[in-house]
Write a structure and sequence with these properties.
Blueprint (H helix, E strand, L loop, with lengths): L1 H19 L9 H8 L9 H7 L5 H9 L13 H12 L10 E6 L2 H10 L11 E8 H34 L3 E5 L4 H8 L5 E10 L35 H5 L2 H23 L1
Antiparallel strand pairs: 1-2, 2-4, 3-4
Helix pairs in contact: 1-2, 4-10, 5-7, 6-8
Amino acid sequence: MLAERSNGLNMHSTLRSIINHIIKPSLFHSSVYSKATQGAMHMYSSATFISKHFMINSMDVYETIKNRRSVRKYLDSPIPFDKIARIIDAGHNAPCAGNLQAWRFIVVKTKEKIAEIAKNAYEQLWMGTAPVIIVICADNTKIKRAYGVRGERLYSIQDCALAAMNMLLAAEEEDLASCFVGAFDERMLKRTLDIPDTARPQAIITLGYPDEKPATPLKTELKDILFFDKWGNREDIKEFFPLEQYVKSGKSVAKKLGEKKNILKDLKKILKKK
């Protein structure tokens, strides 16, 4: 009896790891899985379900990209610091010129400072509703030494943009809303945050729980933005169009992944009650 309870607790802990990390479904035996999750598994009856809904695959990143929106209204709710840390870590793992990692991240949480930054951003006062703001800066000391003017004026901007995109996608994965802000008075922002002359602010990211649901923006057709081999060439690759057919083929999979994400949330809630 005691051993069974011990197994249940161990598997209960394992299930939390599955939800938060990636573990192959083949590691589970259906009977043990059922004991571990106790009442939770009355919704899901077999190990086959685990294979279909808990195996993280390459489509997840596409789902995250498609779901991300620029949100400009946030709830007055604090963000746990572990979420912020993971978002920063995502930015830090972006590719960069020469692996110099010239980016620097300033996390701002005080309401007064956030309000001041909103004024620095040409009076975009909606930013004041965000509980957290991250200012991405480029420290040009090393990158200028390594690559000269091109490193200072191009590579540093590219690197910070790559970091920002990683952070926006990480925020989506953390069930947080975000917005990329590139319009701000650089001198005012540097003064507000005591940024030295050797560094430049490149972007601001607002973070928070959404208090609005922006509509899906209209996108141009892929054929209007794509060339092959050289600018403007579409003549010899007509068999590739319409390219949307290749995207649509993955929609059913994406739908299942969306269902999986909701199921994971349900399981998390159940486990927290245990």
